[in-house]
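Lab channel / #folding
Pinned by the channel admin:
"Please post every new chain as: sequence first, then the structure tokens as a reply. Keep commentary short and put observations after the output so the thread stays searchable."

First post following the new format, from NK:
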Amino acid sequence: MELRLQGRTAFISGSTQGIGFAVAQALAAEGVRVVLNGRTPERVAAAVARLRAAHPGAEHTGFAADFSEPRDVARLIDALAELGDVDILVNNVGLFGLARFESITDDDWGRYLDVNLMSGVRLSRALLPGMLERGWGRILFVGSESGVNVPADMVHYGVTKAAMIALANGLAKLTRGTAVTVNTVLGGPTYSDGVAATVASIADAQAAPVDAVKAAIIGQNTTTLLERFLDPSEIAGLVAYLASPLASATNGAAVRADGGVLTTML
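Reply from TO:
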């Protein structure tokens, strides 16, 4: 499908691997100039090289910034201003991890809120005005079904993802009567690089095959209709569509790519 995105520029936070890099590949395949982001210059440079090799023809680039470091974020915002018009913002960066509620400290809460929520606040605040002025733009939040069905063993993660959905919905109301849209993609359990590393670690500790551990983890999810992990490309495909002019009537929405994990009809 031709998404009519040729010549657009996109910035994707947390995009040197996993879902973020899959989104970068999907957009680059549509002729979008992609700006990657990761925590270290080395990781960014390696990801940019991979993207350029796979999708030549556009000046793909990247900026290193750790969203838990305010000075890094300030430098990134300045760099984006110098870069020029950013048409598509994908707020993908995020932290996740299992933790008992009583063990989650105020510092932990602050770090999760800073990275998972405030990254989107700060980037949207910097880039949304330009989109509104130019009359076209897309802001996408890569959310999670955990923002709707908050897991007991990841309360801090689920709360930040719920706040992300609310943020996107509120920002969409600022775009009334324009060709700018703001939406959230609710992803389900996805076999990203981070999840793959965790599964491998569990498999190693249990001396069990990786596939058996993956199946056991998914088997604990009683509502999944897919009955497997999503591939990052399956999230990326929906993000790319929502970033396109074809999705002009979708605004302020939380759109699912959750494998049927959520049981509500709406």
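NK: The chain has a mean pLDDT of 95.
TO: also worth noting, The longest helix spans residues 106-134.
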